[in-house]
Amino acid sequence: MTTPHAPPPRRPLLHRLPLTWLGILPFLIFVTLFLILPTMHIVIGAFQTREGGFTLQNLRDLNTGTIPSSYWVSIKISAASAALGCLIGFGMAAAVTFGAVPRWIKAPLMTFSGVASNFAGVPLAFAFLATFGPVGLVTLFLRNNFGIVLSRDLGFNILSFWGLTITYLFFQIPLMILIITPALEGLKREWREAAEVLGATGAQYWRMVALPILFPSLLGTFALLFANAFGAVATAIALTGSGLNIVPIQLFAQIRGDVLGNPNLGYAMAFGMIVITGIANVLYIWLRMRAERWMK
């Protein structure tokens, strides 16, 4: 009589964990080196003197000079670009989702949005300077063909508040489209049919049904776009240089190593930016969770 073979002993789970986490190891290394460690360096530096001692003076100095006004201008630019990005992006996403435009436009629009939402920094600043700058294509075209000078007749200057806001819209609108489109697609057809059966018009459906359901998603996306614009450093520096009093310009002036610069004050300013963007991102995550519960 043969005895059945005993199953081979299972390896302890401890031996399988390294292989299980091996695929995510590059991501963890990348996040640690380029996100966690630099952030910790900034936070620690905000509470240090030049000699390395602990101090709160750097945070107190945030309320001196032009630093408070730079924060306020940055907040206004971020809020304006986020509001316009939400408004325009929502209209475009609704048009491609509910068939107001040909369906074949949706795939190219989503692809472009995925690329444009990550297009920022020096290339974006150069593109807008080449288009709307003092000798840009649009500027020269309007001047030579219609006698319209943007700065004189329309009061538009690319190196100004609205110039930077419009530049930010290049990546704010695509990001809004990417985020809000799934929420629009989650609106069930039965809800609209039920509203029509009860005698609601299209405007009443959007005002009483669709927008209240989408409100957490819209408000959360606004918070995300605000944080996205507030943390856009390279684009602002490359576009305006020192011509606009915003936090990234002030921060760059402090940490670039000039005689009058104070790197630790720059760390404090960066710490303030981290706090503001962190609050906006936490608000976005919380509202997104509420929106997902509504959609279910």
UniProtKB/TrEMBL annotation:
Q: Does the keyword Membrane apply?
A: yes
Q: How does it sit in the membrane?
A: Multi-pass membrane protein
For this record, an example GO cellular component is: plasma membrane
Which Gene Ontology terms describe the biological processes this protein takes part in?
transmembrane transport
> Which stretches are transmembrane?
20-47, 79-101, 121-142, 154-184, 204-226, 233-253, 265-287
Tell me if Membrane is a UniProt keyword of this record.
Answer: yes
What is the designated name of this protein? ABC transporter permease subunit
